[in-house]
Structures are given as C-alpha cells and as structure tokens.
C-alpha cells in the first residue's frame, strides 16, 4: 500500500470516527486510536500522539474563536509580575 492510498483510507476512517464520536458524545480519538492500532498496525504511541495533536489543534481553534467573539472572560488572564511572582517561583523550586 503506497502512502497516498494509506492517507486516503486513514482520512476516511477519521471522518467516520469523528461522525461516530459526535453521535455518541465521545471524542473521535476513542474510535480512531483503536482503528489505527488494530487495522492499520500503527504503534500505540504514534496513534495516541496523533489523537492528542488533533485534540490540541481543535481546542486551540475553538478557544481562539471564543476569545474573538467575546464569549470568554479574559479578566483573569493577567501576567504575573512583581515580587510575589518571584516568591512563588522560588517556593515551587524548593517544594518537596
């Protein structure tokens, strides 16, 4: 199987997994990770990594859309500064 055929089959399986995940309320990774491992003989670590990358990309896109549309409260996203920041950082280094 060449790379183009493999990519098309994995793309079709991913669309089906996303559809099934949307219907059941679960993520598509619940479906696609076993499919990649059992049907396509992909190593488990690579399958989980691919699922994690897609979750991060989707979450980042959704977060950007929420912020752009003003649906999120950004008042608590302050930049830590001052002596308290350095105390917390030093304390976290020495915490056992």
Describe this structure in words.
The chain is mainly alpha-helical and 96 residues long. The chain has one domain (3-73). It is built from four helices and no strands. α2 (29-39) packs antiparallel against α3. The chain is elongated. 7% of the residues are buried. The mean pLDDT is 83.
Keywords:
96 residues, mainly alpha, 4 helices
Helical stretch tally: 4
Q: Kindly give the count of domains.
A: 1
Chain-averaged pLDDT: 83
**Termini separation:** 53 Å
Over all CA atoms, what is the radius of gyration?
A: 20 Å
Structural class: mainly alpha
Quick recap:
The chain is an all-alpha fold. It has one domain (3-73). 74% of the residues lie in helices and 0% in strands.
Question: Can you lay out the helices and strands and say which pair or pack?
Answer:
Blueprint: H1 3-24, H2 29-39, H3 44-69, H4 83-94
